[in-house]
Amino acid sequence: MSVYDAAFVNTELSKPTSIFGLKLWVVIGIFLGSFIVLTLFLLSLCLTTRRKSRRHRHLVPTPLVSKEIQEIVHHQHHPPAEANHQHKAPQVPEIQVDTGKLEHILAFSSGESKGHTSVSETTSFGSGNVGPEVSHLGWGRWYTLRELELATNGLCEENVIGEGGYGIVYHGVLTDGTNVAVKNLLNNKGQAEKEFKVEVEAIGRVRHKNLVRLLGYCVEGAYRMLVYEYVDNGNLEQWLHGDVGDVSPLTWDIRMNIILGTARGLAYLHECLEPKVVHRDVKSSNILLDRQWNSKVSDFGLAKLLCSERSYVTTRVMGTFGYVAPEYACTGMLNEKSDVYSFGILIMEIISGRSPVDYSRPQGEVNLVEWLKTLVGNRKSEEVVDPKLPEMPASKALKRALLVALKCVDPDPTKRPKMGHVIHMLEADDLLFRDERRAAREPSDSHSGDRQSTNSGSKLAGDDVHKLTRY
Ligand SMILES: Nc1ncnc2c1ncn2[C@@H]1O[C@H](COP(=O)(O)OP(=O)(O)OP(=O)(O)O)[C@@H](O)[C@H]1O
């Protein structure tokens, strides 16, 4: 542009306009300024609206089933719990829920037409959990609360198998179909998480076919749960004292197998572990049975786990009444010989079908040990046998079992046999035959009147039993 052109533009811009006589460049400036301001205003308006709408979206409540949750429900039919005269496990649908975020509330159909099962009321337990879903331990698994809720239908009442001093036990089915017993522990106040884990892991490493296997545990907030293998044929107490009709399905051989299995489990705890484990609560309800009548000792290690000195013992007064060794009851002194005493009571209970203490009996018969000693001392061993037994045992076998039982309840703990020795005595037919042969060589004496003495083997066993009944 030449000098003349510039002078021309300058002159034109400086001319007054009809708008309040303002010069043209001023008018143009006002227009441009207004346009910029308007643009900025519209821009900010747009941004504010967007932010508001985004904030608004956050206030919408989380839908019951978030789209981030992929739900897979298998309508799997588990066979109904087979005849367990005490407990019928309900059908538990297998539910596998793949969640995006833990804080989502889950709601799902149970798969069965009626049951609308919601775990929403229980998911709050797990909502704070940001840890790993599953941790694989050396020996088992660390389960999340939600996993166990899913397995037990939200810890539902229908899944309750029973309740003991330690807490409520639920039947559960894990997503892989494994049947489990979930023990929701009470009395866990003061049990630090670390301490709990150490103790549980010690129990979890114990493996024996006659001990109920601990599969894992759950620690979340105040919750402490133990997950056990599910033993599907009830407990010995139910079979001995429950309503089984006039003839018990527990034959003599089955009973002896239960005794022997229990002895093996206890011997393992006492003699094969370092440090050894004293059960402290050997009794028939802690002997679980499978379909082949194999026995599995449950609850071992729990007394220690739950700080028995402070909580468990004070509420339950050392073990269970009727099974507790006298020295333990009197002094609180505890070692594996206290378990041996309880085991002796258990043998008597299995042979006789009687509870250790039965107040419905006439005086003098209330206490199982006293009653049994009196009968055996009076040469009436056969009268101690459970009337529900389908067949009387051989006299020799009966006396052997009674002999072992009486040795186990010796008031002097040092004279009680170790569990390993108990196994030998129970298994050793040979030992008795040897003794019988020796007895046959010696002249018959005062016990010829014994009703059992028609059996040549009964004399020596009878002598031993008699000797043991002097207490
Ligand atoms: N692993 C398991 N499999 C199947 N049933 C079990 C299992 N563990 C426990 N039960 C059952 O759960 C119920 C309660 O068991 P728990 O051991 O808590 O109490 P208890 O033995 O009856 O009493 P206590 O607490 O005084 O020992 C019992 O009927 C028992 O048979």
UniProtKB/TrEMBL annotation:
Taxonomic source organism: Hibiscus syriacus
Keywords: ATP-binding, Kinase, Membrane, Nucleotide-binding, Phosphoprotein, Serine/threonine-protein kinase, Transferase, Transmembrane, Transmembrane helix
Protein name as annotated: non-specific serine/threonine protein kinase
Entry keyword annotation includes Kinase: yes
Compositionally biased residues, Basic and acidic residues: 438-450, 461-471
Residues where ATP binds: 183
Chief location category: membrane
Pfam short name (any one): PK_Tyr_Ser-Thr
A GO CC term assigned to this protein in UniProt: membrane
EC number: 2.7.11.1
Stretches for region Disordered: 438-471
UniProt keyword Transmembrane helix present: yes
Ranges that cross the membrane: 24-47
Membrane topology reported for the UniProt record: Single-pass membrane protein
Catalytic activity entry: L-threonyl-[protein] + ATP = O-phospho-L-threonyl-[protein] + ADP + H(+); L-seryl-[protein] + ATP = O-phospho-L-seryl-[protein] + ADP + H(+)
Family, per entry: Belongs to the protein kinase superfamily.
Cross-referenced InterPro entries: Kinase-like_dom_sf (IPR011009), Prot_kinase_dom (IPR000719), Protein_kinase_ATP_BS (IPR017441), RLK_Ser/Thr-Kinase (IPR052232), Ser-Thr/Tyr_kinase_cat_dom (IPR001245), Ser/Thr_kinase_AS (IPR008271)
Annotated ranges, domain Protein kinase: 155-432
PANTHER family: OS01G0323000 PROTEIN, OS03G0125600 PROTEIN
Localization, UniProt: Membrane
Alphabetized GO MF terms: ATP binding; protein serine/threonine kinase activity
